[in-house]
Design goal:
The protein is α/β, with parallel strands linked by helices and about 400 residues long. Helices cover about 40% and strands about 15% of the residues.
Length: about 400
């Protein structure tokens, strides 16, 4: 698709604010949604709405839609099959539930390793579960330049006492991509499980759980043009070994055993539609998981190629403005098209309010990457975060840079 054609799929881009077209730079917190996703959600609610596993057509249609979504998400993540995929309200809720179940197998003397780079959805659930079981939590530190994770320090923390490494594939605060494949090898060599937070990674790099080798990986479709939903990819044999908090006689086998209560069936239908939308960006997609994966590979390659110059334009444009401090690695390094910065003499929230007046929707704060933002010295006011999505244009970045320069 051309950019104009791609943008035409997003109804939200027609919005204006104070007489100006809205430019959405808030993708790291949640992207806009294409019409095909809205249509899939509406179609489910209009024509198939029911609960699961009953003996009438709408219930059976719901079962089929959920099974299709498991297969689509398995293809998206290159998981072995649909039994690896379960759904939840969001990554945070999934992780709290899973941490409690895993911690039932741990006790004093055991350790969990988390990192100072990551969103606290992959820190606090493990910290809380560890506190209940007398487990020690170790923190992997940042590099001296605060641009990423210190992999040597991480390796030193992994010992035979380590039960799990919780690590993010990309920082939602500064965009840094972490080599989670290498980290997984280190953790497995120590005998530990690996849980990967791919929420900020999955919109920008096509996930391959088999290459990463991790045991568990979670992502959030609302970060890649889907509805508010969470997806977990887990080894079925690992989940089957857990004593999960659940109702009786709810299913005891994965993936259903991880899904407490009635799920958002419409959200799950929309998730499958979002993956299919992504796969079709470079052209029609054939039938079957292989064709869907091929479409995703083409699309993510094209999206990466489109994002690189946008990131360069944003990074260099901000660097040319006096009083701007940028955080993270420069373009060309392992990073996503997400840039965070502060403006000297201006609180970050005040800046985003000023930008919103001009139709530029930008987020500010610590984005639950509290430790990372504290290390940057911005705990009080937070940072300003700008993310490029598939619908971002060079003109929108020019508008943003002009508005920041006027500040």
């Amino acid at each position: 698709m051309t950019l104009a054609h791609l943008r035409s799929h997003f109804p939200a881009l027609a919005r204006t604010h104070n007489g100006r077209p809205v430019a959405y730079f808030d993708g790291p917190g949640g992207t806009q949604v294409p019409s095909s996703v809205v249509d899939a959600i509406a179609d489910y609610l209009r024509h198939h709405n029911a609960n699961t596993h009953w003996h009438y057509p709408t219930s059976q249609e719901t079962d089929a839609i959920l099974q299709d979504a498991r297969q689509v998400c398995a293809t998206f993540l290159n998981a072995p099959g649909p039994s690896s995929i379960s759904f939840g309200q969001n990554m945070t809720t999934i992780t709290f539930h899973l941490a409690r179940a895993l911690a039932r197998q741990w006790g004093p003397g055991d350790e969990v390793v988390v990192t100072d780079l990551d969103h606290h959805a992959n820190v606090d659930p493990w910290r809380d579960a560890a506190a209940e079981r007398g487990v020690t939590v170790r923190h992997a530190p940042l590099t001296p330049d605060l641009s990423g994770l210190d992999m040597d320090a991480l390796a030193a923390l992994l010992t035979p006492r380590t039960r799990l490494l919780a690590i993010g594939a990309a920082s939602n605060a500064i965009g840094t991509i972490t080599d989670v494949t290498a980290a997984t090898r280190l953790a497995h060599a120590a005998g530990a499980l690996v849980f990967v937070d791919a929420v900020h990674y999955a919109p920008h790099v096509l996930v391959d759980v088999q290459t990463i080798g991790c045991d568990l990986l979670a992502c959030s479709p609302y970060k890649f043009y889907g509805p508010h939903q969470g997806v977990l990819c887990a080894r079925p044999e690992l989940i089957a070994s857990l004593t999960l908090p659940r109702l009786r006689p709810a299913p005891a086998q994965p993936p259903d055993s991880l899904e407490t209560g009635t799920q958002s069936h419409e959200g799950i239908a929309g998730t499958a539609a979002a993956v299919r939308f992504l796969a079709g960006i470079c052209g029609p997609v054939g039938v079957g998981p292989g064709a869907l994966r091929d479409g995703l590979v083409r699309s993510f390659t094209a999206l990466h190629d489109a994002a690189e110059p946008l990131t360069q334009q944003l990074w260099e444009g901000l660097g040319a403005i006096a009083g701007i401090t940028r955080y993270g690695r420069p373009p060309g390094a392992a990073r996503t098209p997400t840039v965070s910065f502060v403006v000297e003499g201006h609180g970050s929230h005040a800046v985003t309010r000023r930008l919103a007046d001009e139709g530029l929707f930008v987020s500010s704060g610590d984005f639950y990457a509290s430790t990372m933002v504290e290390r940057l010295g911005q705990a009080e006011h937070g940072v300003i975060r700008v993310g490029c999505a598939c619908y971002t244009s060079t003109d929108e970045i020019d508008r943003l840079l002009y508005a920041v320069r006027r500040l």
